[in-house]
Design goal:
three-stranded mixed β-sheet; alpha/beta; Rossmann fold
C-alpha cells in the first residue's frame, strides 16, 4: 500500500544500545522496513537480527570518547555494566545472583555522535546505569531527528554513582520529549514473603518518551511535503508499536483538521492501520490468562529443579498480581472508563 511504498525507500532507523536482550517483539511488525543498529560491548552478546538491514558495533558507548573504562561482567550478560555494582543494596533481593560479578575488564568507549554519520528515528538504551551518559553523547541527534526514546531508569542505588530516574527524566524532558509510559520492575526480597496483595519495591523501569506534539508540529512545518509524510508516518508507527492507539487517532484528527500538513492519501491509510491494530478486550484478558497457564505447565515439568521452579513461581506470582489488578479495574470502572490506573 501507500505506506509500505513510502517506507521501503526510507527505512526506519532504530538504535539498540545494550542489544543482548534485543527489542520487544512488537518491533517485528516493521522489521522489513527497518535499519537496526546495535551496540553491545559484552563478548558473550548474541544478537540475532531479521531486520531489513543490520549494523552491529561491538564496543561500549559513553558521552564522549573514553579509554580504559572498567567493565563489570556479570553472571547474567544483560546486567553487565560500566558502573560498580552496589552489592549491599542488591543482596537484599531474591534475584541478586543475576548481578553476580564474574570478571572486570578494561574497555574503550565512544559516543553515538562519533560513531554514526546519519540520523536515527528511535533509540532504545539499556546500559545498566550508563544510559544518561550515552544519551548525552547523542544529544545533537536527539534534537535534530529522533522521534522517540526507550531508556532504562533506576529507582534505587543498584550501581554506585549512577543517576536516578529523576535525573534522566529531567534531561530528556528538556529536549522536548514527553514521558508516555513507564514499564516498571519490582523485586521480591530474599525472605520471599509474597502474595497477590504484597507490593514489592520499585527497582527499575523502561521509560518511553516521544517527541512532544508542539515540537513535532514545528519540525513538520519546516519540511517538504514528501518529508512531512515520511516523518509523520514514522511517528505513528512508534505510537502503534507501544499501543498508544488513542493518541495516534488524536494526532491524525489534529493534522487532518487544524494543521493540514499530511497528504490525504497517507492520512487515510494511517487511520485504517491504527484502527486495525487495536486489539479487542477479549484478547487482553485471554493474554493474561495464558500468561498464567504457560508458567503453571512449566512448573509441573521442572518441579524437581529448585532453581527453575523458584523462578517460574515468582514469575507466576507477578502475573497473578497483573490479573488481579486488571479485574479490580474492570469491576470498578468498566472496560471503557477513562481512568484505568486502579
Amino acid at each position: 500500500n501507500n505506506l509500505k511504498n513510502l517506507l521501503d525507500s526510507n527505512l526506519f532507523t532504530l538504535i539498540d544500545v545494550g542489544a543482548t536482550g534485543g527489542m520487544d517483539g512488537s518491533w517485528n511488525e516493521i522489521k522489513k522496513i527497518c535499519h537496526y543498529i546495535t551496540f553491545d560491548p559484552d563478548p558473550r552478546a548474541q544478537i540475532i537480527s531479521s531486520y531489513a538491514k543490520h549494523t552491529n558495533y561491538n564496543y561500549a558507548l559513553w558521552s564522549e570518547k573514553k579509554d580504559n573504562l572498567p567493565f563489570y561482567l556479570t553472571k547474567y550478560p544483560e546486567a553487565s555494566t560500566l558502573f560498580k555494582l552496589n552489592k549491599r543494596t542488591l543482596s537484599s533481593f531474591l534475584n541478586s545472583e543475576c548481578h553476580e560479578q564474574i570478571k572486570i575488564s578494561k574497555i574503550n568507549a565512544n559516543s553515538i555522535e562519533n560513531s554514526l554519520n546519519d540520523p536515527f528515528d528511535f533509540i532504545k538504551v539499556d546500559a545498566e546505569g550508563a544510559d544518561l551518559e550515552i544519551l548525552k553523547g547523542a544529544e545533537n541527534f536527539l534534537k535534530d531527528s529522533c522521534l522517540g526514546i526507550e531508556v532504562e531508569v533506576s529507582f534505587i542505588n543498584r550501581h554506585k554513582n549512577a543517576p536516578y530516574f529523576s535525573e534522566t527524566d529531567s534531561y530528556i524532558r528538556n529536549l522536548d520529549f514527553v514521558l508516555m509510559d513507564l514499564h516498571t520492575e519490582k523485586w521480591i526480597r530474599k525472605n520471599n514473603i509474597f502474595s497477590t496483595k504484597t507490593n514489592p519495591q520499585l527497582i527499575w523501569g523502561n521509560a518511553i518518551y516521544l517527541l512532544s506534539k508542539d515540537c513535532l508540529l514545528k519540525k513538520l512545518k519546516n519540511l517538504s511535503q514528501e518529508k512531512r509524510d515520511i516523518l509523520f508516518t514514522k511517528y505513528i508507527m512508534i505510537l502503534l508499536i507501544y499501543h498508544f492507539h488513542d493518541y495516534a487517532i488524536e494526532l491524525c484528527d489534529y493534522f487532518s483538521n487544524e494543521e493540514k500538513l499530511i497528504s490525504q492519501n497517507y492520512m487515510l491509510d494511517l487511520r485504517k492501520t491504527i484502527l486495525k491494530s487495536v486489539p479487542s478486550k477479549v484478547y487482553h484478558i485471554f493474554k493474561l490468562l495464558l500468561s498464567l497457564l504457560i508458567p503453571s505447565i512449566f512448573i509441573c515439568i521442572f518441579w524437581f529443579s529448585k532453581k527453575a521452579r523458584t523462578s517460574l513461581i515468582n514469575y507466576l506470582k507477578k502475573r497473578l498480581v497483573d490479573l488481579s489488578h486488571y479485574l479490580v479495574r474492570l469491576s470498578r470502572y468498566g472496560p471503557n472508563n477513562g481512568c484505568i490506573s486502579g
